[in-house]
């Protein structure tokens, strides 16, 4: 098994290596790949130094699996070249997610749809992944009619420079302005670019990807995605209306046994999910479970996950593990 990590020097790339290590993902050879300006850099994995190589060399090495986190343009240009060389690409960018010929995979929900001829597999957007993981068994039991979600997204979702802008503002030093405004002591209702319909691209990702992952275009979704000055994870206030009514205790029981979910919900002890406690964890944490008393068949949830983990690196490594375990590579 020859594994490539493309974008190895970025926040998600570094997290992918951490997850590979923690999960003891087995491979014979590891290729760490980045842009030309990073070629030659040394990265240590399990105590062993690796030299970063460029994309052209990586393709020629014909890895079995390449996990990409290098942006959409790099993925559009290079994923097909890796695929043509026989590599299975698992891509974290949005480049392939809505392509009707590509699978958009959250292993707990639809990894079973993967086939031997899937050469480019799309990893969904982090804010989508944690929401659909949380709703998976509830959808199976009560059929989702409509989702209203507001997100509270960590600056780590933007990248290293955004974290640095936040810290620089906090420490009173100069730094590159990644956002249009100060982010510390502020919130920005603006993630990615605005669309003609007034939604941002991040909000449209949540809307469109949710339908594709559940395979149900009838699910109505509306989203407001917000950037907040924190690290550790994305948080989401999810209001979900079902076609069927539900029993709240059964909902809690279903959440407790939902694959990938940890239920953290006990108001009496101030127990609820937070980025502070989700940081560096692979699970999706759910709490504040309560009936929406303003309308029938509707539930409120609070969902938190480390966006660099289950929102990106962990989900991608879980897809890679599924491919190996099911002899699809
Ligand atoms: C963000 N979900 O949080 C987007 C991309 N990582 O910025």
TrEMBL record:
Residues forming coiled coils: none
Keyword Amino-acid biosynthesis attributed: yes
Assigned EC number: 1.2.1.11
Catalytic activity: L-aspartate 4-semialdehyde + phosphate + NADP(+) = 4-phospho-L-aspartate + NADPH + H(+)
Catalytic residues as annotated in Swiss-Prot or TrEMBL: 126, 234
Residues the record lists as binding substrate: 153, 227
Quaternary structure annotation from Swiss-Prot or TrEMBL: Homodimer.
Protein role: Catalyzes the NADPH-dependent formation of L-aspartate-semialdehyde (L-ASA) by the reductive dephosphorylation of L-aspartyl-4-phosphate.
Protein's name in the database: Aspartate-semialdehyde dehydrogenase
């Amino acid at each position: 098994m020859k594994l490539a990590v493309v974008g190895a020097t970025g926040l998600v790339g570094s997290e992918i290596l951490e997850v590979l290590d923690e999960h003891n993902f087995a491979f014979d050879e590891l290729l760490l790949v980045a842009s030309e300006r990073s070629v030659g850099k040394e990265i240590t994995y399990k105590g062993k130094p690796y030299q970063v190589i460029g994309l052209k060399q990586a393709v020629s090495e014909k890895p079995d699996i390449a996990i990409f986190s290098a942006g959409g343009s790099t993925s559009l240009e290079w994923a097909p070249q890796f695929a043509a060389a026989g590599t299975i690409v698992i891509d974290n960018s949005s480049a392939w997610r809505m392509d009707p010929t590509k699978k958009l995979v959250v292993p707990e929900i639809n990894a079973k749809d993967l086939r031997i001829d899937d050469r480019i597999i799309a990893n969904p957007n982090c804010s989508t992944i944690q929401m659909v993981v949380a709703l998976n068994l509830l959808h199976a039991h009560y059929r989702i009619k409509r989702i209203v979600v507001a997100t509270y997204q960590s600056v780590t979702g933007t990248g290293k420079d955004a974290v640095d802008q936040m810290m620089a503002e906090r420490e009173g030093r100069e730094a590159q302005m990644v956002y249009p405004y100060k982010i510390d002591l502020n919130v920005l209702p603006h993630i990615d670019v605005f669309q003609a319909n007034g939604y941002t691209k991040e909000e449209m990702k949540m809307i469109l990807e949710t339908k594709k992952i559940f395979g149900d275009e009838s699910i109505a979704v509306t989203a407001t995605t917000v950037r907040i000055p924190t690290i550790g994870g994305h948080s989401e206030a999810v209001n979900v209306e079902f076609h069927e009514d539900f029993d709240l205790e059964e909902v809690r029981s279903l959440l407790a046994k939902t694959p990938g979910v940890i239920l953290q919900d006990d108001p009496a002890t101030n127990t609820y999910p937070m980025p502070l406690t989700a940081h560096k964890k692979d699970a999706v944490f759910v709490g504040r479970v309560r009936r929406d008393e303003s309308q029938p068949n509707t539930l409120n949830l609070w969902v938190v996950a480390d966006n660099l983990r289950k929102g990106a690196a962990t989900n991608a490594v879980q897809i890679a593990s599924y491919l190996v375990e099911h002899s699809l590579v």
